[in-house]
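Weekly structure sync - notes
Attendees: PM, LS, DV (DV joined late)
Agenda: review two folding runs queued last week.

Item 1: First target. Sequence and structure tokens pasted below for the record.
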Amino acid sequence: MGMCVGKPANVAHVSSSQFMDYAKSHHERKHRSKTMTFKKVSKASRDENCPVPINLKAFTFNDLKTATKNFRPDSIVGEGGFGRVFKGWIDETTLDPAKPGTGQVIAVKVLKSESHQGHREWLTEVDYLGKLRHKNLVKLIGYCEECENRLLVYEFMPKGCLENHLFRKGVEPISWAIRMRIAIDVAEGLSFLHSNEPDHIIYRDLKAANILLDSEFTARLSDFGLARNGPVGDNTHVSTRVVGTSGYAAPEYVATGTNTRLVMRHLTVKNDVYSYGVVLLELLSGRRAIDDERAGGIEETLVEWVKPFLIDNRGVFRIMDTRLGGRYPKKGAQAVAALALKCLHNDPKNRPTMAEVVVALEEITNMSKNVVETPSPLIASPRSCTRSKQKNRNLVHRRGLANVQNPPLR
């Protein structure tokens, strides 16, 4: 769940059993407005403790009440599986509560559930974001663990989440150049996690809702509740139950069979690479990872919808976001689509590393810098493009014959 500006989005993590029930419940999930209440965590949850990084600010509950105007509904900027997110203000130097509109803007995420899993994710988020610092990871400023409430305090990301900019109606579409900057930012963030020493960190929940944007559209990864350390030494993977978000999970990771709750799957950094391939397709097409509106109410994943079009290079123009109006470098779009397919390879061993993805995207961007992005009414129909090219060839041929038969006077 990200700190998205605007209408709260209903975003939830999906366990192994929920993957199998997703299609049935997809139409039943609707946003429900609730009054914010603060509940106690279970006794079992309180027994799980981890050392809190010393560079985090320990806020009091009253401080955060003041900073968010007592958690008023008009302060809500987002909602997800963890809980609601409130906008607030603190002093830039002392980090004490400040008057609305002054000081540093923050986002306060509140654990809404008594579930044991929710508390574990809270601890995981504090552990990772309290230690990790990178320009493409959201900054965790502090936390509150008081009155048996669990809250996290982040820097505020004014442009909200990528999900809103790609899919929400009425929002101005982002340009090709910004989409490529976001793609590189996300790739660099994942590459940093995967190369982290001594433990390679697997993000495990990459999706458009978890990609936050600052005022300059710099992308940062958020929501580390499902992250975990990767394999160490000679181990090639870690075994874990399936969690994440349907539509983004790698096929080798999604549990199948009857006893899905008991199924363990091999987890590697290449699972993140697959999810990144899905995000690339979202950036190209402007379509969600799962959208039941594509086939008359029949659920279909973005990967399933896109792959038939990408058999040849010309098919890329059939899947491009029409809101771009054709303003993108055609060869650049083809190259990004080809890279997405590599990330989506069924065999995880054949997927590139995120470091390799960063290099490839930078090369594509540099290649496209000198290309003028001009709208083309033919981009949605490669067949029309072919006819147009043939007409041009015929016209040139006829003009050539006319010049031979009627040479110009000297």
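Item 2: Second target, run right after the first with the same settings.
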Amino acid sequence: MRTLCPNLDNEDALETVLEVPIPEESFEDHTKINHNTITSNWQTMKSWIKPHSTDQTRQFSDYGGRNAQIQLLLGVIGAPLVPLPISSVHSTMINPSIQDHPIEASMAKYIVQQYIAAAGGERALNLVDSMYAVGKVKMVASEFISEDGVSINCNGLSGGGKAMKSKNVKNGGAEMGGFVLWQKRPDLWSLELVLSGYKISAGSDGKVAWRQTPWHHSHASRGPPRPLRRSLQGLDPKSTANLFTNSICLGEKTINGEDCFVLKLEPHLSALQVRSSNNVEIMKHTIWGYFSQKTGLLHQLKDSHLVRIKTPGSDSVFWETTMESLLQDYRTIDGVNIAHGGRTTVSLFRFGEDSESHSQTKMEEVWTIEEVDFNIKGLSMDCFLPPSDLKKEDDQSIVHATSGDKFIGSARLTSKSRGNSSRFGVHKIAAIDSNGFGDL
């Protein structure tokens, strides 16, 4: 991964150190073209170091084509959060009598203990005070047509057929990117992710979790701060164990040829209500952990949440997001087993109103960890401060439109798409933007 950016104004000057390393694959195709193309690519990277320039806002004011795809990928897969807060202290006291707990809860506690042992043991996990990780990602998305056979794709509206068919991604398919993650506690973390030159930042200072995107000002998540889901994808075994301590065991299931125990965790209704508003209701958010019977390690992480968007004068619209992450390539770092790769698949389903508004989008991310280290010296609270323009979301931040857009938020960008170039549709991008589906 490239860590230095050339000085485009003075070839003899020192190169700039990138805050987020960029995968070499992002430049392989450009090396066969010309110097102007390479320079243009670096200028794009440079312009996104500052997350809210006028040029960026202008560039995302058009929902069409590739920008809409990148916005969708970053908004959903970039920095999602887990359903509920996680304690940084793990209780190892398990009552040996299963009569004091339902059998499903007792089984889950023992499976978690086996996971702790497989991940390196309680002593090794407790020695980890902080964590730093650098990785690269490859993301891709495709839209499925609705029941009436109509879909919005890169070439505009298309029709015909009743079955749902996939529309393959154009522009070469996948978007490449890299990320840097810093973490001191489950509720004290900072993430910067760059995808094809466009950057998303997110973090938590222990009091509030926030995110910042090129198309949306910094905003806080509702409710107490929650951990980053990416950390639980094999990077933070201790937090994973703490999350599933109060889960229940559903039984066994074979995932990708691996026999696993299935643990399930659902937040209480009160935890969902604190994340809801007058216009947006979090109806459910369930998470499952699939732990290998052979190794004891987490093999797959899955979560699903259902959101209801209330619009005056019309039926509610529902968005159901299901995310599954397969963890691979475990390696031992300072006595702790860390997953160094994996694949996440996402299904985003919109339904409600009439069947013509139904749509389904599939997204996929393949990630690899290039570097990881523990107990980072000098990682102070100042490293996790939220942006100065952070604003907490309130009910007044959501407005409604009647000009064909199903749901538009206050941060809605004016649609200036030429013809029908919007591949995923304005209503889908706006809804994801307004409600922060990635941090629900």
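Discussion on item 2: The mean pLDDT is 76.
Action: LS to circulate a short write-up before next sync.
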